[in-house]
Amino acid sequence: MSAVSATSKLIANETMARRLSRRRAADRRFRWYCISAVGFALASLVLLFVDIIGKGYTAFYQHEVRLEVFLDPDVIDPSGTRDTEQLSGADYALLWRRPLQQLFPDADTRSARRELYRLISDGASFELREMVLEDPSLIGTTQTVLLPAADDFGQLLKGHVKRGVPESDRPISDQQLEWIDQLSAAGAVSTVFNTRFFFSGDSRSPELAGILAALVGSLYTMLVTLVLAFPLAVATAVYLEEFAPKGRWWIDFIEVNINNLAAVPSIVFGLLGLAVLLNLFGLPRSAALVGGLVLALMTLPTIIIAARAAITSVPPSIREAALGLGATRMQVIQHHVLPVAMPGILTGTIIGMARALGETAPLLMIGMVAFIVDVPSTPMDPATALPVQVFLWADSPERGFVEKTSAAILVLLAFLLAMNALAIFLRQRWERTW
To answer: Looking at the predicted structure, is the pLDDT value of residue 87 above 60?
Structure first.
């Protein structure tokens, strides 16, 4: 009997050991699955950033051609009145085409001269015009100017256009390659930081396109969103948590709809803005004010939910102590509840604003997809936003807009990371544990 008992114990121990071994093996597999998932997510994120940075960093510098330009008064001031505002860019184009042609006298046919002139951006004429308008005393003098190189010229020097391919497969001809090499050998080509990218509006020419108008439009849009969404959301959260009667059907109806609105696709808010704000109330299309109103409606549920969670986390003892000292309900909320809950409220607000900053679909529905060159001066002016600018450039066929798209995405990501870092800082700086 003892032998049977010992055998049974041995079998039970072996069975238990096998089960324990399988359990530990399953635990190790699950741990490795989790580590693999995290590693895959990090690797995908790294690949995404490497791809964006690899395509976009070249947009932060550009090439310019140095020329000695004679500001001929017979061309830009034929009447002697120095009233040069009436002249077009084509008139100023004669000023830089002459010295360029003198550098390459072999361009003696009309087609050769057209190829030569395509090395310089069309915007060079307007930059000369602005220079003369700022200082008319320059008329009649010779100035050393840096003119922006054309996009194909710049893409060649950046390595995006390959030299070894057949001429039919690249936008630069063999003759233009020879002229570019001569300009580079003569030291007439300079590589400079692309200030136009940050201080210019949009343009049909990739080498002249910038994000300033989109940045200002995004700033006005976010300002309107914050001014409207933050006080309304906080007031709603305070009412629902502190004053609303519990168990009423209409309070439950409001809470359910707030939670549902937080999950509604953003394009639905764009359709609402198109139908109500534009068609019904007649607000100006493409204005940052309308964009801010639409994004405020979209951001409200997110901020309300975050604010309610922050207010709920305030210990009841704080309310009871303030009430016991004779404070009114409003004083308790103003001087005790809101200051303690404010870190969570601000964190939710910044996260909601960061989401609104990256939205494109609702802005497209209200017309902020327009081609905007001038920087908006007020929220009522036509404007675009940075995500919409990325959308427009991504749809352009020119190679120069590919790097501009990636560079604009990097700027947008920098703003989003800065806003999320601010949220983390506020939470760690003011958060209290009870």
So the answer is: no
